[in-house]
UniProtKB/TrEMBL annotation:
It comes from the Bacteria. This is 3-hydroxybutyryl-CoA dehydrogenase. Gene3D superfamilies: N-(1-d-carboxylethyl)-l-norvaline Dehydrogenase, domain 2, NAD(P)-binding Rossmann-like Domain. Pfam families: 3HCDH, 3HCDH_N. Belongs to the 3-hydroxyacyl-CoA dehydrogenase family. Residues 185-281 form the 3-hydroxyacyl-CoA dehydrogenase C-terminal domain. It is an enzyme of class 1 (oxidoreductase). Residues 3-182 form the 3-hydroxyacyl-CoA dehydrogenase NAD binding domain. Keywords: Oxidoreductase. GO terms for molecular function: 3-hydroxybutyryl-CoA dehydrogenase activity. Its EC number is 1.1.1.157. SUPFAM superfamilies: 6-phosphogluconate dehydrogenase C-terminal domain-like (SSF48179), NAD(P)-binding Rossmann-fold domains (SSF51735).
Length: 295
């Protein structure tokens, strides 16, 4: 399997395309927005430059990686020869179900369809296709080229063979795939999101300020990034939508999103991507500086 299609050229999609391309796969990167495709390629180029500067890859590997990626705005054209499609479009159930219906029609019968969703049920996504045994979750972590984990989510009908193929493929990317079952939040977000939500609740209750909460968790718990900063990087809208999926899925108030998080998202303060969240990223190079510690 050498031909991969990646749907969505945003934060995660460009990282996933970068990673496959770096390990020699031919990647077709697909997005409805030409602007996002250009921005995605610019981000990949910048991240590769950083890797060259840190002597993690050679100039030649950078060139080869970029040559392995081509961009498309049409799903039908982009997935024509794909052995695997990794969907990393906006975290919205309707958008994903529509994409998987289209993929099921457009892809060859044997193509495996993976989703990078943070929270939407893989079993539900699979149910809109005629190949539920070939639908699986491949939950990469941000920033994809650096983070080792891929949470592999088995839907109710995902076959052993498909799971094994995706586990092996992830190892070819020098990642550590970890198999989990399909329940709201899977494992990573089921544990992470209540912690981020609690940090926001702690701020909302005036127990401490933003910097203080992050400092306690960074220096006291040896977390590389404070929870409020991490929420800004993930995107407050993404955090809210994951918490809502868990709240709905388990019907348990412990997952109820903090009112401050809800208000900030309503006000358009979604974190790094909007220029403001718990921190202000509009004037400073703060986001770039924090990211540089990790990439
Ligand atoms: N941001 C994170 O830290 C993170 C981590 C793990 C998983 N995820 C998951 O990855 C997925 C993508 O998240 P992101 O943060 O990269 O989002 P993003 O908003 O940065 O990018 C989403 C991209 O999808 C494109 N898109 C929307 N509808 C499309 C369609 N019909 N066809 C093709 N492209 C389409 C948009 O134009 C955009 O470029 C989500 O499911 C999210 O839950 C995000």
């Amino acid at each position: 399997m050498k031909n991969i299609a990646v749907i969505g050229a945003g934060t995660m999609g460009n990282g996933i395309a970068h990673t496959f391309a770096q390990f020699g796969y031919k990647v077709k990167l697909i997005d409805i927005s030409e602007e996002n495709l250009s921005r995605g390629i610019a981000t990949i180029t910048k991240n590769l430059d950083r890797m060259v500067a840190k002597e993690k890859i050679s100039e030649e590997e950078k060139k080869q990686t970029l040559e392995n990626i081509t961009v498309y705005t049409s799903i039908e054209e982009g997935v024509e020869y794909a052995g695997l499609v990794v969907e990393a479009a906006t975290e919205n159930e309707k958008i994903k179900l529509d994409i998987f219906r289209e993929l099921d029609e457009a892809c060859p019968e044997e193509t495996i369809l993976a989703s990078n969703t943070s929270s939407i049920s893989i079993t539900k996504i699979a149910s809109v296709t005629k190949r539920p045994e070939k639908v699986i979750g491949m939950h990469f972590m941000n920033p994809v080229p650096i983070m080792k984990l891929v949470e592999i989510i088995r839907g109710y009908n995902t076959s052993d063979e498909v799971t094994e193929t995706i586990m092996e493929l992830s190892k070819n990317l020098k990642k550590v795939p970890t198999e989990v079952n399909d329940y709201p939040g899977f494992v990573a977000n089921r544990i992470l999101m209540p912690m981020l939500n609690e940090a926001i609740e702690t701020l909302y209750n005036n127990v401490a300020g933003v910097e203080e909460i992050d400092t306690v968790m960074k220096l006291g718990m040896a977390h590389p990034m404070g929870p409020l900063q991490l929420a800004d990087f993930i995107g407050l809208d993404v955090c809210l939508s994951i918490l809502e999926v868990m709240y709905d899925g388990f019907k348990n108030p412990k997952y109820a999103p903090c009112p401050l998080l809800v208000n900030m998202v309503r006000a358009g303060k979604t974190g790094v991507k909007s220029g403001e969240g718990f921190y202000d990223y509009s004037q400073s190079k703060k986001a770039e500086k924090v990211a540089e510690q990790f990439i």
